[in-house]
Amino acid sequence: MGVETLGSARDKLARLRLILTDIPDAVVGYSGGVDSSLLAVVARDAIGDSVTAVIADSPSLPRRELSEAIAFAHRHDIPLEVVRTNEMEDPRYLRNGADRCAFCKEALTDAMLTLPAFREGTLLLGVNADDLGDHRPGQRAAQRRGARFPLAEAGLAKAQVRALAREMDLGTWDKPAAACLSSRLAYGVPVSEEALTRIEQAEESLRLLGLAGDVRVRDQGQDLARIEVGSDRFEHVMAYRAEIVDAMHDAGFRYVTLDLEGFRSGSHNLLLSVKPPGTAAISPLERNRSS
């Protein structure tokens, strides 16, 4: 990022601080990623003890991500609450339609409502300006329940968030995006604790084989794993092909594929057609049956 662009990011950081000072009782929806980490640190600095960070603990959150997020909050003296959410009890969420994230955000907000810190507080989410153009029904669900997106309000894009996090010496500045484990399931493949555990084990195995970072194991249904890594790492995958296949089989997948298009954040969303509101998306399994 150039000096001029970084200067623009600093101007937006100042705007973010002003936005936060007008929110005296803030509850930051925290995941441990770079966006929510920056938001939590700046909010703590801007409004002090009246900010609380809340992380949702559920089977869709990898254990490694949870422990790292808790450690970050402790290092930066951010008051943190860990709440258990119940989206796994919601049949709408378990069906895994294109609106799955909305039910997850509803569950998170409902869990926060039980916290004393949330009684008079405003929910703040680490949504940056780039996120606003993506398919994220959870954002709309959160907004309906009063959530605000201070990073986006300040005009901060993802690259600017990372640049500021680096300048502030936050360890998360170069952390790869880490969506919840449920996002690895193709739409229409039901969410279950067994499925999420299988994905977590598979991705952890890839990490141990030297494939950390922007790596996904996508569950396409019918025991098929689609592995996404950057195209510059294909040689590494082929060098460890036998070990990777064994690891995927050990996790519970029967078929193992490598996506030749490489890593793409939210690649399952490519299957979503533009449809009128209220029309259900067609799942990959349904497409296969009809073809």
Features:
about 290 residues; alpha/beta; four-stranded parallel beta sheet; about 10% strand; globular; disordered C terminus
Task: Report on this structure.
With 291 residues, this protein is α/β, with parallel strands linked by helices. It contains 12 helices and 7 strands. The strands form 2 sheets. It has a 4-stranded parallel beta sheet. It has a 3-stranded mixed beta sheet with strand order 5-6-7. The longest helix is centred in the first third of the chain and has 19 residues, at 3-21.
Task: Annotate the secondary structure layout.
Elements: H1 3-21, E1 26-29, H2 34-47, E2 51-57, H3 63-75, E3 80-84, H4 91-94, H5 100-112, E4 122-125, H6 137-144, H7 150-153, H8 158-167, H9 193-208, E5 216-219, E6 224-228, H10 234-239, H11 241-251, E7 255-258, H12 284-290
Parallel strand pairs: 1-2, 1-4, 2-3, 6-7
Antiparallel strand pairs: 5-6
